[in-house]
């Protein structure tokens, strides 16, 4: 899970000078939902290939 602190670091690395707590919280929430969706798709792809291990192609196809 992406924390609020990590979200602030990402936003600052992207060029933000200052980031409010509310913005960091919302950004973290959106990113966590996106990551969860990709993880679910990756698990389904690995299961379809009769594997329990998630591999790079699963992640690439889940995009």
CATH-defined topology? Histone, subunit A
Strand content: under 5%
**N-to-C terminal Cα separation, in Å?**
18 Å
Order of helices and strands: HHH
Assembly state (oligomeric):
single chain
State the helicity in percent bands: over 70%
Rg: 15 Å
Protein structure class: mainly alpha
Stretches where pLDDT falls below 50 for ≥5 residues? none
How many domain regions? Answer: 1
Largest sheet: none
Number of helices: 3
Q: What top-tier CATH class fits best?
A: Mainly Alpha
Task: Assign the CATH architecture.
Answer: Orthogonal Bundle
Task: Tell me what you see in this structure.
By secondary structure, the chain is mainly α. It has a single domain, classed as Histone, subunit A (Orthogonal Bundle), CATH 1.10.20.10. About 70% of the residues lie in helices and about 0% in strands. The chain is built from 3 helices and no strands. It has helices spanning about 5-15, 20-50, 55-60. The longest helix has 28 residues, at about 20-50.
Primary descriptors:
63 residues; mainly alpha; 71% helix; Histone, subunit A; elongated
Quick overview:
It is built from three helices and no strands.
Please render the helix and strand layout as text.
Blueprint lengths: L3 H10 L7 H28 L7 H7 L1
Helix pairs in contact: 1-2, 2-3
């Amino acid at each position: 899970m992406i924390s609020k602190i990590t979200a602030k670091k990402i936003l600052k690395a992207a060029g933000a000078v200052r980031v409010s707590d509310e913005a960091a919280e919302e950004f973290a929430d959106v990113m966590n939902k996106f990551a969860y969706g990709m993880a679910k798709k990756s698990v389904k792809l690995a299961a379809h290939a009769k594997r329990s291990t998630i591999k790079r192609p699963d992640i690439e196809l889940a995009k």
